[in-house]
Write a sequence for this structure.
């Protein structure tokens, strides 16, 4: 029980590292939450500080999910404090819990009054390790939607929705035997629901036409 608690707490703390605040304060001496959309995420950094810093923050946030799944989960000592009724091996289940803890840390960071980002990049890092093919499809969807619409929020939402859809198509139409499909699908559904919840204001702005578009020529 103690080891599992340590893994989840460490993953939460890693996810809580406020990369966007660190970058914005280091470069411009500002709190990114007081500018643009007011969100502490890579999209807002992209909008306020330019694409280079936006990409940097997104990569760092993605790394948080990867570190939680690949490194912190290694503390697992071979015994989990509950019965594993999922089709996953115990270690894979530990990785999922570590990754989810990192996403929660990013959204509700203890280092910034629980006002973090929206969890997209950190969830991306976590899921890239667990369902790589489906995440590559989601990345392609994100790039396509953002490239056409210039709405990062729309790209994020669409990419998130594409993940369970890709899982369903691969398993049921192409008959790919995805390990732990019936467990990973509802888990991904929870992550998607979290993404949509954190983007609820963006959805409202998209509907009323007030959502800001990004410009790849803005700042450097």
């Amino acid at each position: 029980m103690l080891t599992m608690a340590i893994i989840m707490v460490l993953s939460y703390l890693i996810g809580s590292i406020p990369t966007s605040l660190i970058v914005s304060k280091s470069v411009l001496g500002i709190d990114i939450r007081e500018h643009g959309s007011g969100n502490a995420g890579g999209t807002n950094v992209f909008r306020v500080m330019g694409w280079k810093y936006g990409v940097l923050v997104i990569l760092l946030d993605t790394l948080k999910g990867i570190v939680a799944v690949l490194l912190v989960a290694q503390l697992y000592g071979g015994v989990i404090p509950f019965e594993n009724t999922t089709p996953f091996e115990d270690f894979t289940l530990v990785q999922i819990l570590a990754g989810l803890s990192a996403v929660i840390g990013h959204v509700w960071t203890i280092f910034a009054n629980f006002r973090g980002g929206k969890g997209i990049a950190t969830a991306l890092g976590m899921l890239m390790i667990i369902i790589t093919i489906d995440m590559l499809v989601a990345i392609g969807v994100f790039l396509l939607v953002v490239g056409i619409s210039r709405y990062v929020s729309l790209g994020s939402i669409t990419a998130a929705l594409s993940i369970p859809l890709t899982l369903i198509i691969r398993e049921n139409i192409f008959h790919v035997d995805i390990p732990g499909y019936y467990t990973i699908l509802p888990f991904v559904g929870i992550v998607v629901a979290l993404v949509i919840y954190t983007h609820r204001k963006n959805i409202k702005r998209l509907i009323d036409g007030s959502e800001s578009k990004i410009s790849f020529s803005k700042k450097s």
